[in-house]
Amino acid sequence: MAENPSNEKAVEPVNEQAVASRWSFMRTEVNQLHSKLTELEMELSEHALVIGAMQPLDPARKCFRMIGGVLVERTVGEVLPAVQRNKEGLDEVIKRLQEAVERKKKEIAEFEARYKIKIRRADEVNGKEEEQKGAAAGAGGGAQGVLVGPAAS
């Protein structure tokens, strides 16, 4: 996730296809960040549940912890601080990821403004297709099929 803004801005897309490709790549990056953020938030809630379950227990009580795929025996007093540290680390990572998502969204908005990218919602596109099909059916005597517009240059 290392960013090099000077490198990204130096390479300007040369045609419409390059602009669309770059925009699609940026959207994919945001989706990946959202996905990772959701995963970490779920892990954070699991840590909170474990901490909530362990806090009322006697610190000398035996408990088990998975470390690198190996289940080890410890005490609540040893495990609880480690789980709390992990939770704090997750909080920090989530905060940084949220900031990265916001930066990336801002970058996409600037990119869309620079290249005048407009996003059509699915219901808008479907509505226009229905209008075009209706007009074609009225003029063509009921021909059915898919309308295809002129190819972009």
Helix content: 55-70%
In terms of per-residue confidence, which ranges show pLDDT below 50 for 5 or more consecutive residues?
none
Q: What structural category arises from helix and sheet content? A: mainly alpha
Distance between the termini: 34 Å
In total, the number of strands is: 2
Biggest sheet, in brief?
2 strands, antiparallel
Structure description:
With 153 residues, the protein is mainly alpha-helical. It has a domain at 15-117: Helix Hairpins (Orthogonal Bundle). Helices cover 67% and strands 8% of the residues. It is built from four helices and two strands; from the N terminus they run ααββαα. The chain has helices at residues 5-10, 16-54, 76-114, 122-140, and strands at residues 62-67, 70-75. Strands 1-2 form a two-stranded antiparallel ribbon. Strand 1 (62-67) and strand 2 (70-75) form a beta hairpin. Helix 2 runs antiparallel to helix 3. The two termini are 34 Å apart. 0% of the residues are buried.
Describe the structure concisely.
67% of the residues lie in helices and 8% in strands. It is mainly α.
